[in-house]
Amino acid sequence: MNMPGYSIFISEFIGTAILLLLGCGVSANVSLRTAYGHAGGWLLVSIGWGFGVFAGASIAWHSGGQLNPAVTLGLALHGSIPWSTVPWYVAAQLTGAMTGALLAYLSYKKQFDTQKDRERLGRIFFTAPSVRSSWWNITTEAIATFVLVYFVLQSSPFQPGTGDSTPVFGNSALGYAAVSFVVIGIGASLGGPTGYSINPTRDLGPRITYSLLRIANKGPAEWGYAWIPIIGPLLGGAAAAGVFALAGTY
């Protein structure tokens, strides 16, 4: 992919902002007691985040719709993108995540004003473990992210037919919808222990936004945990690239 840095930034910024708008939006819908989706359950959260990925990545298709530094790292290690583009991707993903979280807050401003549960307010923006254990929380995030990044690396490209031969669609035929299904599956299956960040900026960006917002009854941003949803996904993305290189394309 040969795109100027500013084009990568714009594409990834908008796509990541849409992802976080819809992702934090569904979290707010389920968590805020005066919202219509209140107590909608974990499956609704998983579906909302999954289709947030679909919308954001589809919008950011010009830059590959990565939206996630763990995916960017995996692709760079694999050689699919040049390392010189990585800072553009990560900067756009972080600032886009902060912006999307802000837009989600503005969408639910009046519902936030009536919320009294301090713990639930933070969970709308950032992840936290159901049982706190740093290394096991990192392990969970690494395993879940491995599934996502390995799927992205393994997605076989579309091959058009020639002559009388039929085209070979591969598992990329569904495009970003396929990735969104994987994200929904990860959330439903592996999201219980940590809330499945699987994306460093998905957690860090909204956590920064939350810490800056003036929300009534706001609890702490829990910065002591913030390094785990950064390190875990990056380890998972790097591991996926390594295993993929060892396994080959078979």
Structure characterization notes:
By secondary structure, the chain is an all-alpha fold. The protein has one domain: Glycerol uptake facilitator protein (Up-down Bundle). Helix 3 packs parallel to helix 10. The longest helix has 27 residues. The protein is globular. The two termini are 24 Å apart.
Quickly describe the structure.
The protein is 64% helix and 0% strand. It is an all-alpha fold and 250 residues long. It has one domain (5-247): Glycerol uptake facilitator protein (Up-down Bundle), CATH 1.20.1080.10.
Q: Compute the separation of the termini in Å.
A: 24 Å
CATH superfamily: Glycerol uptake facilitator protein
The proportion of residues forming helix, as a percent range, comes to 55-70%
Number of helices: 10
Itemize the secondary structure elements and their pairings.
Elements: H1 5-31, H2 42-59, H3 69-78, H4 86-107, H5 109-113, H6 118-125, H7 134-154, H8 176-190, H9 200-212, H10 228-247
Helix pairs in contact: 1-2, 1-4, 1-6, 2-8, 3-4, 3-7, 3-10, 4-9, 7-8, 7-10, 9-10
Keywords:
single chain, about 250 residues, mainly alpha, Glycerol uptake facilitator protein, 10 helices, about 0% strand
